[in-house]
Amino acid sequence: MMRLPWWTWAWPLLAWLVLAATMFLGDHGLVSALAGISLIATVFAAVHHAEVVAHRVGEPFGTLVLAIAVTIIEVALIVSIMVGTATPDVVGLARDTVFAAVMIACNGVVGLCLLVGGAHHREQGFQVEGASAALAVLGALTVLSLVMPNFTLSTPGPIFNTAQLVFAGAVSLVLYGSFVFVQTIRHRDYFLPPPGTVEVDHLARRRSAPRC
Amino acid sequence: MSLVAVVGLAKALTPTLDAAVDWLKAPKAVVGIVIAMLVLLPEGMAAVKAARANQLQTSLNLALGSALASIGLTIPAVAAVSIVIGQRLELGLGFKEEILLALTLFLGVVTLGTGRTTVLQGIVHLVMFAAFLFLAIVP
Predict the structure, then answer these.
(1) CB-based contacts of A94: which residues, under 8 Å, 6+ apart?
(2) Given an 8 Å threshold on Cβ–Cβ distance, is B47 in contact with A109?
(3) Tens-place pLDDT, residues A40-88
(4) What is the C-alpha to C-alpha distance for residues A167 and A2, in angstroms, rounded to an integer?
(5) Would the pLDDT of A104 be above 90?
(6) Residue A155 has what pLDDT?
(7) Which secondary structure element, helix H or strand E, spans residue A128, and what is its range?
(8) Any chain A CB within 8 A of the CB of B24?
């Protein structure tokens, strides 16, 4: 096992302690704040663990492992809220979270990357084949699962019936599975840095940096 | 490995997060934004770091990859859960969100269509992001 920084173990441990504290002390403002902080830190620790695994399997599987790890945490959070409470508030939680994730990734993260990259390097290049493949899949996925329910006639309102849910789930898996297959095996080169740029793997660089 | 344990822990901490959001009386769509931000924060930071190091390809792989994984795997998972436990599941977006989504997809195709990007495209996307956040809090 590779040596891990202390905080990747310390934060989850602290989070467990805070969790135990919430059971005894109940909902207190301070306890909630502490729990929030340790939850954020624990997510960071989890993603760091995923990065270590990602590095071991190598690019381009690395970003895939990271994306899946992040999604597992997201699904765990959504499902536990869905199962835990039966209030009408939670029926749209999955949609709100997925939509927010798409907006944050495609506008927030992409925008910040282009801005920071543009400010430092004036003009930056990447492979159009990879980016447009990803956007095509994203367009199909988002419209089929998040817009289509509003227009289907089997159930009124923004809801799919059971058969449509099964279909939407299967379509999502086919689209995402095909994208992953293309990204990691069939057209790997579309997702590697374009020729002419210096190839520095951020995961590898992290490994070579001394561990604290 | 250790990831599984931490995922379980994140799940165990959820009631507290839920209670905290209730306590703040935030609109319910904000809960989704908080969850999405929480899980995307570490990856987003890695993406920005990569862009700074002139590795925009890695940034885009991370950003678009996490958006795809988020929707492509969450939808089947929650669909399965909702069928098993018989929970109602609303997936359709409101009109406002549909417009934001359509504009985001259109802009993504245009801004990432040439393979070369500058600060302008970044600012356009950030303005879209600000509009999304603002309109979520002030519907």
Answers:
(1) A78, A82, B74, B75, B78, B89, B91
(2) yes
(3) 777 777 777 777 777 777 666 777 777 777 788 788 777 777 776 656 6
(4) 42
(5) yes
(6) 83
(7) helix A128-142
(8) no
DSSP labels for A151-188?
Answer: T-SSSSSSB--HHHHHHHHHHHHHHHHHHHHIIIIITG
Please tell me whether residue A77 adopts helix, strand or coil conformation: helix
Contacts of A168 in chain B (CB under 8 A): 75, 79, 91
Hey, which bits of chain B come out as E strands? 116-117
The label of the residue with tokens 């430092």 reads A120
A30: chain B residues, CB-CB within 8 Å: none
Which residue type occupies A22? Answer: T
Give the residue among B76, B70, B130, B128 at the shortest CA–CA distance from B102: B128
When CB atoms are compared, the residue of B65, B67, B81 closest to A79 is: B81
Three-state SS at A38? helix
- pTM comes to 0.82
Which two tokens mark A136? 């095509």
Q: Where are the domains of chain B?
A: 1-91, 93-139
Query: In a mutagenesis test of the B interface, which of A16, A77, A90 is the best target, namely the one with the most B β-carbons within 10 Å?
Result: A77
Distance in angstroms (rounded) separating the CA atoms of residues B70 and B59: 16
Q: What is the mean pLDDT of residues A136-146?
A: 93
Cβ neighbours for A102, distance < 8 A, ≥ 6 positions apart = A138, A142, B67, B70, B71, B101, B104
Please name the residue of chain A whose CA is at the shortest distance from the CA of residue B77.
A75
